[in-house]
Amino acid sequence: MAQPGLVLPTPSMQSQIHELAKTLPPPRRQNTACDNCRSRKVKCHRIPGQEKCQHCQSKNYACTHFVQQATSERKRNSTTARKPRNPSSVASPLSPSTSIGSSVLSPISDNGIHNIPPYLMPSGTSLPLVFKYGFYPPITLETPTRDVLTYLFAPPEDAPSDSNILNSGRTKSPYDLWGDQAVKLEDDVFKSELAFDLMEIYFQIVHSRLPLLNPTQFRNRLRTSLSSNPGSDKPLHPALVATVLAWGTKFSEHPLLIADRRAHNGQSLMSKALINRTRDLAEALKVHRIANQDHVVIGLLVETLQSQNPDDPSAFHGFWLTAATRHLLDLQINHKSVAARIPDTETRGTLIFAWWMACICDAYSSLYYRHKPVLDDDDYDIDFYTVDPPVSQDGGKPSPREQLEFLGYYRAAHSLARTARQMSRQLWRPITDADGIPFETLRTFASALRIWREKYLAHVGVPKNYNAGWDFVTTVSCFASDAQYHVMWIVLFNALDEFGVKELNENDRSGTPPENVQNRSYIEDSMRRVGEEALNGALRIAALTSVLTANEYLKLDPAVVEFHIIAAGHLLARLGRQEVSTCIVGLEQYSHSYEEAGDHAQDIRKTYEQVRSSGIDLNHMAALIKQIAAFPTTTTEPENPPGGREPMSPSVLGSFQMNGMLNMDGAGILMDVDEETTAFVAQSKNETSYM
């Protein structure tokens, strides 16, 4: 029986509706393709009665439909959202306040979470996070490590299509793009063995420079996770596992990686793929959004894992470093009182070391890549917490972290980082670009660098009594600290050449005679001395690079001295110095793990060739650079100008005699800088030029 008020269509109306329906386009057929076929944009053909489609069955993939389920869920949610809210005061079972989806998707709304100490905040939710639609099932924090390896070591996305798989009856492996050894990745046992090998490479090479993990704990957890009986322990963070293994591919000499590099002109496509997948996985698991210990460590490790070229849109922009720094601020590790209350010594040590690493890297990267630092000097009151000689609990050698703390490298690096932070805030301002560097600012930075040199360089740089028997940590750390100081002068020189001194610029723009500038000779003398320090620093870095290259250490460096070599190489090339060949060779070796280093080597070579053919190309420093000696070895604080402030104490500044350094063959023979530099130039003239 028809309801009251309901008008039924007449036969004439039904006929009109039927005719109209014929003219409408056919309804859109629902896409039921599986995730793998959807990702590869191929037809998904599944025979009725079979669980997998033909494509997934031939590749032995899991035939999943997560995208289709997510689409259906969104449609259901949007339909529910359009329904009128229940006017009753009693919550409806489908109301947002009581729905299961709402309670799970909003875990942070729990008031009890505010009573948890910040360093014990949960790592996140166990909800599935779809990060590569159609390629793999969603990975969560609860995903077994074996499944994470399946994602990391899956075939390359641009593997041959289905039409090219069959070749004369022989199945072509989708791993062929990664070299002739990569087909072994089809075996799950081999994946586990490779994972252990890459992990060991990480701890042998990267951990000694960036000691952010507990090697024993990580090894045991990974071994347990990949065993036949993983137990009920929570697996390692998937993004952390991915980061460690991706680092391993950079430096591993495993036959699989060697074959991959041999097939691609020295570059590993597998390593690039793992780095991209690591970054995608970290983004999907909200590593950059949720503050906890794992995410701090992952952020700091991913930052230097990527390309360090600031012009690369998919690589270095300080994103992960900034995220890790803000996580540390959210966890209040910058407060001494909070850090001291962390009960677990391992957690406390990791977070405090991570703080200093983030603090120092933030300052240096802002100076190198010309952006404002995240931190200020007054953003933290935390102390260095190791004051006694480190003693290992098991009676063995101290950890790299403890060793570097005791030797004073972090303290010296932080002191220089504060100067770098101040330089960044003053040099890269728009007003400095327009007007130039105020002379008082230039003089302040020069004095700060000389004070640091007198206080720290002899302790953390390469000393005259260098012992070739030093361990790896001490050796590479003192080389990096030495180069770190000298590259500061190069950065200051480049800014001075680009912007000039404000007082001289104002005089030149006004058109008044040059001699009308008060203390002009004093200003130009100070500029010349900055040029001496910069050239001195570039020669020093070139000599250190030669030693590192001879020992093939640059193949194993996680981008610690890459910028130093690039900056020194560019300056030597702009000045037409033959010593630039050392930097070029070093960067070519660096390209073994950082491809952009090879591009910088080519740019430096082109600059050198142009300068040799057309002359030195400088701006504000062009006239003064001719007054710099070929091998500057001593620089002093300029005398105080008439009417100016009192000069710094000679006992603090004094004259600078560069530390002795290794000879160019790395044999450990010590020479003064004059003898070594002269020998180096003579050697360069006798050898075949790299230009």
Characterize the biggest β-sheet: 2 strands, antiparallel
| Oligomeric assembly | single chain
Ends apart, CA distance between termini: 96 Å
Structural class: mainly alpha
Look at the structure and give the mean pLDDT. 77
> Runs with pLDDT <50, length 5+?
81-136, 161-170, 385-395, 634-691
Helix content: 40-55%
Question: Total number of helical segments?
Answer: 27
- The global form is globular
Strand content: under 5%
User: Got a strand count?
Assistant: 4
| Radius of gyration, CA atoms, in whole angstroms | 31 Å
Output the strand order for the largest sheet. 1-2
Pfam families: Fungal_trans (PF04082), Zn_clus (PF00172)
Keywords: Metal-binding, Nucleus
GO molecular function, one term: zinc ion binding
Biased composition (Low complexity): 87-103
How would you briefly describe this protein structure?
By secondary structure, the protein is mainly α. The chain contains 27 helices and four strands. The protein has helices at residues 11-23, 35-40, 54-59, 66-82, 100-105, 145-152, 188-206, 215-225, 238-251, 255-263, 269-284, 293-305, 319-330, 336-340, 345-368, 400-407, 409-427, 430-435, 439-460, 472-499, 502-510, 520-550, 562-574, 580-590, 595-614, 622-625, 673-686; strands spanning 166-167, 170-171, 661-662, 670-671.
How would you portray this structure in words?
By secondary structure, this protein is mainly alpha-helical. Among the domains are: 117-160 and 172-291, no CATH class; 436-686, no CATH class. Helix content is 53%, strand content 1%. The chain is built from 27 helices and four strands. It has helices at residues 11-23, 35-40, 54-59, 66-82, 100-105, 145-152, 188-206, 215-225, 238-251, 255-263, 269-284, 293-305, 319-330, 336-340, 345-368, 400-407, 409-427, 430-435, 439-460, 472-499, 502-510, 520-550, 562-574, 580-590, 595-614, 622-625, 673-686; strands at residues 166-167, 170-171, 661-662, 670-671. The strands form two sheets. The chain has a two-stranded antiparallel sheet with strand order 1-2. Helix 15 runs parallel beside helix 17 (409-427) and helix 23 runs parallel beside helix 25. The radius of gyration is 31 Å and the shape is globular.
